[in-house]
Design goal:
- Pfam families: RGS (PF00615).
- It is a single chain.
- The protein is mainly alpha-helical.
- It is built from 11 helices and no strands.
- The longest helix is centred in the N-terminal third of the chain and has 52 residues.
Length: 259
């Protein structure tokens, strides 16, 4: 037999063997992959059946369920941009914003009065009277201002702010305003979570907690008196001996002589 014929047969046999081998490999691979795919499908079916059991009323996959108009409010998202959404989160945000505005307006009014006192210039006679008694110091707006600046250096300014807030609060007559301001004062100066908490004993705190059930304009009377006494016994003597008071007395005395 010629050599060329033998080579052609051998090549044809080789190609046939290679094709057969490839087909066999594909069939073997499909045998392994098919169970894996079926197992995945089975696991997905089991997961979806479990979800349907845990969440009553869940629809099967492929069924597009149109939400009703009544359910839109309960399922509405906080990030919706439409004005018709009845999302409860928007209501809560509006209430929080109103609460912050009320608190900010009250804090601005309370501390605004104190800031106004800081702009007052005392006379030499007034500064001399401050040294006679703590009552005279506290009854003078310029005296309260100077004393408050001293308390700020001792990191106890909250005592003066609380006393001023109680002074304004005691003049309130509207019941609804009294309840609102009482809650704000409590959260700002009485609560242990507040950074401006004032130092009160347990007896006074118990009295305040009882009074907060039905707040009146006298809810913080005991606390105000205790803070007043604390400033009188502790901070006032140091203020009288401080360089701030002595320099102020010297300055106003020189100005009075010049005038």
């Amino acid at each position: 037999m010629p050599t060329d014929v033998i080579k052609a047969k051998n090549i044809s046999y080789l190609w046939a063997y290679m094709v057969k081998f490839c087909i066999g490999s594909v069939s073997v691979a499909s045998c392994f992959l098919q169970p894996m795919g079926s197992e995945r499908m089975e696991m997905r079916k089991r997961q979806m059946s479990v979800q349907q059991e845990l969440v009553p009323g869940t629809t099967a996959p492929g069924q597009n369920e149109q939400p009703s108009q009544g359910n839109r409010g309960s399922n509405a998202c906080c990030f919706c941009w439409c004005c018709c959404c009845s999302c409860s989160c928007l209501t809560v945000r509006n209430e929080d914003r109103d609460e912050r505005n009320r608190r900010a307006s009250y804090d601005f009014k309370a501390e605004g009065n104190a800031d106004l006192e800081e702009s007052l210039k005392p006379t030499a006679e007034e500064v001399c009277l401050w040294g006679q008694s703590f009552d005279k110091l506290m009854h003078c707006p310029a005296g309260r201002s100077a004393f408050r600046q001293f308390l700020r250096t001792e990191f106890s300014e909250e005592n003066m702010l609380f006393w001023l807030a109680c002074e304004e609060f005691s003049k309130e007559t509207n019941k609804s305003v009294i309840e609102e301001k009482a809650r704000i004062i409590y959260e700002d100066y009485i609560s242990i979570l507040s950074p401006k908490e004032v130092s009160l004993d347990s007896r006074v705190r118990e009295v305040i907690n009882r009074n907060m059930l039905e707040p009146t304009s006298h809810t913080f009377d005991d606390a105000q008196l205790q803070i007043f006494t604390l400033m009188q016994r502790d901070s006032y003597p140091r203020f009288m001996n401080s360089s701030a008071y002595k320099n102020l007395l010297k300055t106003v005395s020189e100005q009075s002589v010049e005038s």
